[in-house]
């Protein structure tokens, strides 16, 4: 397991610490094997840090989050907060915030009373009202206080859910695919907003998603999960440029691989190949390869051309819209090293 | 699981113990000790099972229930379509009217159908009085609403796009119905059918009044055996037979039900609704069938009951039958006026409804939990079925069991029979399953993550219950109160055993009156039945108002 960000033991003051965590689900039928959703994961989230867990559905990231929240029992390992084990602490005493994919707003309460839920019984009414107003401003829903939640759009509902989770100033905010149910444009905008809100409130957060753009936008560090294990943890920049395995690289969006020197593999991002003979003659270098154009699709500002490169497979190249070759055209392509990553193996 | 203890204790004391005592008494010879199994005498089984009358009654019970269920489903499906999938003026009113028969007291329905079919009635010439057909018609009258509401509520939430896709692929409306709609509705239909079968198989008051000597169910036979022949052994054997029948039906229905409740979403949009178009042959046929059923089968008997209650035996208009409610004649054999009985009924039903909603609400809460462990889930399924048993055990058995056990409940020197609590407790036992079935789908439809979100915000389990489950359950509870109240008002099987002459309830009074000779008594019975029907229907319509969402359920 790549834990390049590991800090020495004595430096661990506060924050969340997950150690060799195992989460199991009882079999649906007696006699079946238990499903191991999380299989020995260690991870930490430092105070003020936003960490995203990235992985395909079924990789165990949500189970990990639920175990940290206290919603799933821990089969083995430990979950610690501020140096103390919290495995035996019930959900409602952990003081963590939790936000689901579909908000789970209380349908019988209006916006303000949803946001106030975690504050009730903790502060006087006037203070509570002020905090609710403050939070609604933070999430950009000024003036929504008395609206019934059923009248809100999906994006507004998620903003209310975020305000509700942030209102009691949670020590740690847990977000389970908070933007996945929204459409693409809204998702991109809300991801930026979410990052801002988390930064301005100084919230420590653990964030689960299957969308790498979202993870890279919101998180300080990203952990990539697969089949119940944590495959790699690092900053977005670090992960993108130094994926630890082809599996991680493929999940991050690298689309093909070249054999390198020895056991090294070169991962190719979309755009790693450029059409060569458009700029210059088929003159220099061995870096040129033969390719056949398979198809093209128009995107914002450029066109994505699908190429079958000899000895590599199907990759994507970005081409200005006025230079798109017809399908079936034989072309030559050149490799752009900036759009590749070296993976050192074998592991 | 501590929450399971209270309802389990209640049902153990007021259901299992009386019923078991009655059954045991049937097998223990006089003088032998009940705790000595060696002395038990099971010869009653072979004796009762050897009688041809027993098999005739069992056969009749199953035949009535089967035919009644088939007809209810066949007529109810077009009704569900018209009332829940189409828009038309006054739809809400028609939906409410269709529901009324289900909560009408059995005694009222028996009297209404008899006034229609008896000699001298408008259908007297058909010779249907006291026939199988009359009983089945009355059973369909009751259970039409069960099918319409259960299937209709489901149908209203069915995504129409699957049907649209099939039509776009070239399927005719009939083929769409057969290959897409009906399979999608299958769980709801199965659930409704098994409930209707259960209600038909355990019908008591209606069959007692309409069946005469020739027709009966196991339930009426238990009543006859205990009250007229004091033959406890036969009654005990018949109770066991009925339990077996009910257990089988419950097993089938619980399988159909779980799949249905999972599919329910709390706030599904109603995209499938459209205005009814009489130019479409399917819409026309469904509307005509539904209109005929609502007017002919549901409306007519009730209207006729009302009209007859305002007439003398000779057909002249009069208020006299209603005047008699306040002053029963010397030949009525009553020691209280009908108005006094009505007051008793209301008081009793109020206590019964409170008890039923309290215990039933707790049961629904326990059964709606989703334990993580497989054994926990299994235990809950068993509990779910156990809590439904009162639905199928003869109310007569419950009543009679109360009579022989509650003189010294738990060995305490406390005769509950004179306390006035016995009748409401018995009625509550009968009403509890209805409360559970009304509240449970709503609780099951609450996303467990909503409770998790509340817990993460610092809500203790008790606060989550109070602030999340409570408000979501409140509306269903309103309806449950209404159902429990209506069921208690009309309860006849158990009450007929337990009510003393001076605390007789309205259904008991109606039954006593029609059992006595004389046109005056008959007229008073009709007026009393109208009063009972109006009371029940008003309670139900009030409860219906409280209900915000309109999911299909019992």
TrEMBL record, chain A:
<dbReference type="InterPro" id="IPR017871">
    <property type="entry name" value="ABC_transporter-like_CS"/>
</dbReference>
<protein>
    <recommendedName>
        <fullName>ABC-type quaternary amine transporter</fullName>
        <ecNumber>7.6.2.9</ecNumber>
    </recommendedName>
</protein>
<dbReference type="Pfam" id="PF00005">
    <property type="entry name" value="ABC_tran"/>
</dbReference>
<dbReference type="InterPro" id="IPR027417">
    <property type="entry name" value="P-loop_NTPase"/>
</dbReference>
<dbReference type="GO" id="GO:0015418">
    <property type="term" value="F:ABC-type quaternary ammonium compound transporting activity"/>
</dbReference>
<keyword id="KW-0813">Transport</keyword>
<dbReference type="InterPro" id="IPR003439">
    <property type="entry name" value="ABC_transporter-like_ATP-bd"/>
</dbReference>
<keyword id="KW-0547">Nucleotide-binding</keyword>
<feature type="domain" description="ABC transporter">
    <location>
        <begin position="16"/>
        <end position="252"/>
    </location>
</feature>
<dbReference type="InterPro" id="IPR050093">
    <property type="entry name" value="ABC_SmlMolc_Importer"/>
</dbReference>
<keyword id="KW-0067">ATP-binding</keyword>
<dbReference type="GO" id="GO:0016887">
    <property type="term" value="F:ATP hydrolysis activity"/>
</dbReference>
<dbReference type="GO" id="GO:0005524">
    <property type="term" value="F:ATP binding"/>
</dbReference>
<dbReference type="InterPro" id="IPR003593">
    <property type="entry name" value="AAA+_ATPase"/>
</dbReference>
UniProtKB/TrEMBL annotation, chain B:
<keyword id="KW-0813">Transport</keyword>
<feature type="transmembrane region" description="Helical">
    <location>
        <begin position="130"/>
        <end position="151"/>
    </location>
</feature>
<protein>
    <submittedName>
        <fullName>Thiamine transport system permease protein</fullName>
    </submittedName>
</protein>
<feature type="transmembrane region" description="Helical">
    <location>
        <begin position="184"/>
        <end position="212"/>
    </location>
</feature>
<feature type="transmembrane region" description="Helical">
    <location>
        <begin position="58"/>
        <end position="84"/>
    </location>
</feature>
<dbReference type="GO" id="GO:0055085">
    <property type="term" value="P:transmembrane transport"/>
</dbReference>
<feature type="transmembrane region" description="Helical">
    <location>
        <begin position="349"/>
        <end position="367"/>
    </location>
</feature>
<keyword id="KW-1003">Cell membrane</keyword>
<keyword id="KW-0997">Cell inner membrane</keyword>
<keyword id="KW-1133">Transmembrane helix</keyword>
<dbReference type="GO" id="GO:0005886">
    <property type="term" value="C:plasma membrane"/>
</dbReference>
<feature type="domain" description="ABC transmembrane type-1">
    <location>
        <begin position="58"/>
        <end position="253"/>
    </location>
</feature>
<feature type="domain" description="ABC transmembrane type-1">
    <location>
        <begin position="342"/>
        <end position="543"/>
    </location>
</feature>
<dbReference type="InterPro" id="IPR000515">
    <property type="entry name" value="MetI-like"/>
</dbReference>
<feature type="transmembrane region" description="Helical">
    <location>
        <begin position="476"/>
        <end position="499"/>
    </location>
</feature>
<comment type="similarity">
    <text>Belongs to the binding-protein-dependent transport system permease family.</text>
</comment>
<feature type="transmembrane region" description="Helical">
    <location>
        <begin position="522"/>
        <end position="543"/>
    </location>
</feature>
<feature type="transmembrane region" description="Helical">
    <location>
        <begin position="284"/>
        <end position="303"/>
    </location>
</feature>
<keyword id="KW-0472">Membrane</keyword>
<feature type="transmembrane region" description="Helical">
    <location>
        <begin position="96"/>
        <end position="118"/>
    </location>
</feature>
<keyword id="KW-0812">Transmembrane</keyword>
<dbReference type="Pfam" id="PF00528">
    <property type="entry name" value="BPD_transp_1"/>
</dbReference>
């Amino acid at each position: 397991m790549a834990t390049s960000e590991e800090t020495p033991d004595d430096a661990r003051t506060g924050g969340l610490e997950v150690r060799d965590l195992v989460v199991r689900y009882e079999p649906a039928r007696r006699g079946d094997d238990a499903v191991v959703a999380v299989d020995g994961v260690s991870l930490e989230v430092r105070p003020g840090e936003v960490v995203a867990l990235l992985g395909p559905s079924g990789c165990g990231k949500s189970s990990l989050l639920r175990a940290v929240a206290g919603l799933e029992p821990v089969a083995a390992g430990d979950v610690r907060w501020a140096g103390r084990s919290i495995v035996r602490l019930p959900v409602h005493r952990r003081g963590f915030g939790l936000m689901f994919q579909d908000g789970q707003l209380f349908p019988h309460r209006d916006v303000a009373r949803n946001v106030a839920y975690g504050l009730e019984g903790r502060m006087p009414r006037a203070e509570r009202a002020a905090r609710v107003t403050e939070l609604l401003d933070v999430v950009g829903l000024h003036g929504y206080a008395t609206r019934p939640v059923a009248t809100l759009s999906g994006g507004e509902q998620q903003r209310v859910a975020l305000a509700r989770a942030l209102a009691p100033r949670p020590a740690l905010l847990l977000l389970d695919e908070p933007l996945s149910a929204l459409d693409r444009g809204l998702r991109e905008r809300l991801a930026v907003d979410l990052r801002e809100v988390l930064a301005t409130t100084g919230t420590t957060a653990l964030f689960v998603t299957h969308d790498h753009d979202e993870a890279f936008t919101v998180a300080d560090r990203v952990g990539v999960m697969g089949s119940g294990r944590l495959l790699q943890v690092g900053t977005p920049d670090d992960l993108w440029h130094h994926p630890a395995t082809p599996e991680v690289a493929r999940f991050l969006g690298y689309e093909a691989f070249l054999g390198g020197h020895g056991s090294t593999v070169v991962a190719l991002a979309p755009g790693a190949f450029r059409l060569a003979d458009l700029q210059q003659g088929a003159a220099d270098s061995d870096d040129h390869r033969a390719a056949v154009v398979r198809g093209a699709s128009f995107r914002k500002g450029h066109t994505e051309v699908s190429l079958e490169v000899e000895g590599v497979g199907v990759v994507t190249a970005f081409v200005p819209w006025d230079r798109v070759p017809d399908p079936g055209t034989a072309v030559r392509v050149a490799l752009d090293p900036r759009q590749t990553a070296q993976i050192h193996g074998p592991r | 699981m501590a929450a399971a203890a209270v309802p389990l204790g209640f049902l153990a004391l007021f259901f299992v113990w009386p019923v078991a005592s009655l059954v045991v008494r049937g097998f223990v010879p006089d003088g032998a000790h009940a705790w000595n199994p060696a002395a038990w005498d099971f010869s009653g089984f072979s004796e009762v099972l050897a009688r041809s009358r027993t098999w005739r009654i069992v056969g009749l019970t199953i035949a009535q229930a089967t035919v009644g269920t088939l007809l209810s489903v066949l007529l109810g499906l077009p009704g569900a379509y018209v009332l829940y999938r189409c828009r038309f003026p006054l739809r809400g009113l028609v939906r409410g009217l269709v529901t009324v028969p289900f909560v009408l007291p059995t005694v009222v329905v028996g009297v209404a159908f008899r006034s229609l079919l008896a000699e001298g009635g408008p259908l007297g010439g058909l010779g249907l009085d006291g026939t199988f057909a009359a009983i089945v018609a009355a059973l369909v009258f009751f259970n039409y609403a069960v099918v319409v509401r259960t299937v209709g509520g489901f149908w209203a939430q069915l995504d129409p796009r699957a049907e649209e896709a099939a039509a776009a692929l070239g399927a005719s409306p009939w083929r769409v119905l057969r290959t897409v709609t009906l399979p999608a509705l299958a769980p709801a239909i199965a659930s409704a059918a098994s409930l209707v079968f259960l209600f038909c198989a355990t019908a008591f008051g209606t069959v007692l009044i309409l069946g005469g000597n020739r027709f009966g169910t196991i339930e009426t036979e238990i009543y006859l055996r205990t009250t007229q022949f004091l033959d406890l052994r036969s009654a005990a054997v018949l109770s066991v037979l009925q339990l077996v029948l009910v257990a089988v039906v419950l097993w089938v229905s619980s399988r159909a039900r779980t799949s249905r409740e999972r599919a329910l979403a709390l706030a599904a949009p109603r995209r499938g609704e459209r205005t009814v178009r009489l130019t479409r042959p399917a819409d026309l046929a469904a509307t005509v069938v539904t209109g005929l059923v609502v007017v002919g089968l549901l409306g007519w008997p009730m209207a006729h009951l009302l009209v007859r209650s305002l007439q003398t035996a000779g057909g002249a208009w009069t208020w006299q039958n209603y005047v008699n409610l306040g002053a029963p004649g010397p030949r009525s054999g009553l020691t209280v006026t009908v108005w006094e009985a009505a007051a008793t009924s209301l008081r009793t039903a109020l206590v019964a409804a409170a008890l039923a909603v309290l215990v039933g609400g707790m049961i629904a809460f326990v059964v709606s939990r989703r334990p993580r462990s497989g054994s926990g889930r299994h235990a809950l399924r068993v509990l779910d079925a156990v809590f439904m048993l009162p639905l199928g055990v003869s109310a007569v058995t419950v009543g009679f069991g109360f009579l022989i056990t509650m003189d010294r409940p738990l060995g305490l020197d406390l005769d509950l029979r004179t306390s006035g609590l016995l009748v409401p407790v018995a009625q509550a036992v009968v009403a509890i399953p209805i409360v559970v079935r009304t509240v449970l789908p709503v609780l099951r439809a609450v996303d467990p993550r909503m409770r998790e979100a509340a817990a993460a915000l610092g809500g203790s389990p008790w606060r989550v219950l109070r602030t999340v489950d409570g408000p979501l359950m409140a509306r269903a509870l309103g309806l449950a109160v209404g159902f429990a109240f209506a069921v208690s008002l009309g309860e006849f099987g158990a009450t007929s055993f337990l009510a003393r002459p001076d605390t007789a309830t309205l259904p008991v009074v109606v039954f006593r009156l029609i059992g006595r000779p004389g046109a005056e008594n008959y007229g008073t019975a009709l007026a009393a039945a109208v009063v009972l029907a109006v009371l029940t229907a008003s309670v139900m319509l009030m409860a219906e108002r409280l209900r915000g969402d309109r999911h299909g359920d019992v």
